[in-house]
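F.,

This is the one I mentioned.
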């Protein structure tokens, strides 16, 4: 695990990775800004209604604003994840050739499958986010919970996107899923820091890349 994290941190600081992440981040920010600008009031009203059970009106109002901002932030994270999933294949292959030159590329991720997995993970993530929204305001517990929710967004799409490039056998890929929840949560730590959060999806992919291709030690 330590070796996986060390290699991944080295890779994420490379020029190619940084340029890729910045490109995905800027596009995601533009899309999120447009959606948020047009839907902010709607989101705020829906969330305010959801929080109407809270007895204090001031907390309902402020809580709705915070939750709406959080929802916009989650939307940004989802869009970054989706774009990273769609356009990172060349980057991953380049990193793999650099680190593991003897391991061949045996396939490619199907775009439709990749999109569907990302959308599925996003829907599950958003549903869990809405259901557990009141719990997110609990100190410490809320931070751990949101970290887990972010890992839900990353885990399945990432294991598919990376695994499809280097593994043909489903049984082998299933075996490689071990520890990926922990890796996804490690990558999700980036989401705690605005701007740096754009690195989370590609960091997850790089972590999974080393987990799948590297030798267990």
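My design for it:
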């Amino acid at each position: 695990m330590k070796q996986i994290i060390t290699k991944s941190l080295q890779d994420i600081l490379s020029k190619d990775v940084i340029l890729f992440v910045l490109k995905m981040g800027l596009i995601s920010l533009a899309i999120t800004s447009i959606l948020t600008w047009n839907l902010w009031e709607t989101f705020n009203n829906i969330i305010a209604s959801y929080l109407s059970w809270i007895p204090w009106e001031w907390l309902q109002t402020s809580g709705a604003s915070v939750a709406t901002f959080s929802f916009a932030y989650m939307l940004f994270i989802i869009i970054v994840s989706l774009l990273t999933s769609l356009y990172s294949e060349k980057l991953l292959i380049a990193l793999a050739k650099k680190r593991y030159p003897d391991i061949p590329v045996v396939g490619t991720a199907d775009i439709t499958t990749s999109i569907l997995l990302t959308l599925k993970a996003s829907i599950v993530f958003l549903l869990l986010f809405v259901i557990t929204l009141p719990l997110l305001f609990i100190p410490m517990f809320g931070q751990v919970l949101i970290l887990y929710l972010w890992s839900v967004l990353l885990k399945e799409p990432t294991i598919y996107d990376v695994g499809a490039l280097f593994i043909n056998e489903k049984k082998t890929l299933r075996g490689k899923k071990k520890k990926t929840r922990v890796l996804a949560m490690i990558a999700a730590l980036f989401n705690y820091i605005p701007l740096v959060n754009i690195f989370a999806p590609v960091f997850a992919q790089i972590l999974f890349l080393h987990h799948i291709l590297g030798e267990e030690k």
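The chain has a mean pLDDT of 84.

Talk soon.
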